[in-house]
Predict the structure.
Amino acid sequence: MAEAWHDLRKVGLEFIDEAPQSYRLVAHVTFPADEVWRALADAEGWSSWFPGVEWARYADTTQEPGVGSVRQSQVGGVRYDETMLIWDEPCRWGYRIDRTTAPIARAQVEVTELESDSQGTQVIWRLATDPAEALEYLADGTPFASFLQQLHEDAMKGLEDYLTERTVV
């Protein structure tokens, strides 16, 4: 049986500032921004470091990815099709979710900003959403903002470990 897809509203980068709910999370990794950028841009590598990502890929493998590219992924059993909205190497990368197999939102944009410092890179993840239902708490009572903060911290630890392993090899 084919999976049912749910289309999300096609919004642009302005949605980051206009969304009904938005979150800004910051973490630090000890690698330079260009290395962090390469890990973000490498769709297939995400399953090695981002929690729950089972697979990810760019739909068109005949062209270099960039603004307008479609990234496909499966995270926690849910499929996503995303359109890249920003590709400013090595400082900003982001996408809009176009459709998903779970009715999570009416619109959603995620942008990651990289800011170099003397000890590596500040990774700022911005998630803007018009959720299908209010996202104040998860089903288990966990505040959604706390869940996102923990997810971002776990992802950045995974990224740090992933980049360390690649450096050692």
The beta strands are 6-7, 21-29, 53-58, 70-75, 78-88, 92-100, 105-117, 120-131.
